[in-house]
């Protein structure tokens, strides 16, 4: 089976803290940590400036690490209704930045990510962080801890990949081509 | 009292239908309708492409009408939790586009808008539309009807303006200057 190497930017969306992690690998091959971090925007700044800062820092991550795919955690509304608005907006910015650069983007739910990385959709944060450390062959859990969710997301994307992702990417490219045609 | 003329782009955020309306005027002067419409994005398209389309059409509205201020309806989470995510993301795009171009942006709640235009925070859609028609001295209610909310938002912004808005604008400019400094 031929291996499809991917460089995935995982984005764990948030307005105050947005986790970002880049992992390279293919199904059945070792995974490599390329970069990890958290984008912080000041809670007391105007919302529009926080969104603008998030956009520009995501652009920088993309320019630096040139991901072939972006994986964004799917936001659910059952969480705290106050924070969900900011989380939805942060996720929206990540999707927008990906679409603008024609980078295929996919969303995965938190339980899909946990299941992919630990085998259980109900794993806790520590279990996820521990597995991320092992899977990336690291000496210790990456800091800050919230960034491990972004790495888990990237790993999930690589492993759920294969044929399905290839199809999804082809569809994404086609959709974007059609969108351009539709826009006259 | 010197009159401060404003050209306000009102944005009634939505993913499937995003109302946009541009009104020019000052407190105590007649209001002028500059443009009105609805940005539609296909519900069956990928979310990232819908956000990208919304961004580019908002950019076109701004390029065409050169608003001095953008007013966005403040999204509340007590609505349908499903649609609120898309609405929050659409509002986020409007805020982002404004911040990127350094155009002051403010949010008003639906009841502030209704109260400003009809005198009652609990006015219904028809009452708002009727008042928008009268205030802009139009022969009939602008179509499509959802676009009247965007016009009401723009009118609300002009009327709530004066000193407060001048201060808010000064603060916005200062914040944006500081944000640039903070970003090294």
From TrEMBL, chains A, B:
It is found in: Cytoplasm. The active site is at residues 12, 73, 146. Its EC number is 3.1.21.10. Mg(2+) 2 binds at residue 73. The keyword GTP-binding does not apply. SUPFAM superfamilies: Ribonuclease H-like. Mg(2+) 1 binds at residues 12, 146. Signal peptide: none annotated. It is an enzyme of class 3 (hydrolase). Keywords: Cytoplasm, DNA damage, DNA recombination, DNA repair, DNA-binding, Endonuclease, Hydrolase, Magnesium, Metal-binding, Nuclease. Transmembrane segments: none annotated. It catalyses: Endonucleolytic cleavage at a junction such as a reciprocal single-stranded crossover between two homologous DNA duplexes (Holliday junction). The keyword RNA-binding does not apply. Its cofactor is Mg(2+). Binds 2 Mg(2+) ion per subunit. Gene3D superfamilies: Ribonuclease H-like superfamily/Ribonuclease H. Homodimer which binds Holliday junction (HJ) DNA. The HJ becomes 2-fold symmetrical on binding to RuvC with unstacked arms; it has a different conformation from HJ DNA in complex with RuvA. In the full resolvosome a probable DNA-RuvA(4)-RuvB(12)-RuvC(2) complex forms which resolves the HJ. HAMAP family: RuvC. The RuvA-RuvB-RuvC complex processes Holliday junction (HJ) DNA during genetic recombination and DNA repair. Endonuclease that resolves HJ intermediates. Cleaves cruciform DNA by making single-stranded nicks across the HJ at symmetrical positions within the homologous arms, yielding a 5'-phosphate and a 3'-hydroxyl group; requires a central core of homology in the junction. The consensus cleavage sequence is 5'-(A/T)TT(C/G)-3'. Cleavage occurs on the 3'-side of the TT dinucleotide at the point of strand exchange. PANTHER family: CROSSOVER JUNCTION ENDODEOXYRIBONUCLEASE RUVC. Belongs to the RuvC family. This is Crossover junction endodeoxyribonuclease RuvC.
């Amino acid at each position: 089976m031929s291996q499809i190497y991917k460089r995935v930017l995982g984005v764990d969306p948030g307005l105050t803290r947005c986790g970002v992690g880049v992992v390279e690998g293919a199904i059945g091959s070792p995974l490599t940590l390329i970069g990890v971090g958290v984008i912080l925007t000041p809670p007391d700044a105007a919302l529009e400036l926080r969104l603008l800062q998030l956009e520009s820092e995501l652009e920088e991550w993309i320019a630096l690490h040139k991901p072939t795919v972006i994986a964004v955690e799917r936001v659910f509304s059952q969480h705290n209704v106050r924070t969900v608005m900011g989380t939805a907006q942060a996720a929206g910015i990540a999707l927008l930045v990906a679409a603008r650069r024609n980078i295929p983007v996919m969303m995965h739910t938190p339980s899909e990510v946990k299941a992919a990385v630990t085998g259980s959709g109900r794993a806790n944060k520590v279990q996820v962080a521990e597995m991320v450390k092992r899977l990336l062959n690291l000496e210790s859990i990456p800091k800050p801890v919230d960034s491990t969710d972004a790495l888990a997301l990237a790993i999930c994307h690589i492993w759920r990949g294969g044929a399905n992702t290839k199809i999804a990417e082809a569809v994404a490219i086609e959709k974007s081509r059609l969108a351009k045609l539709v826009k006259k």
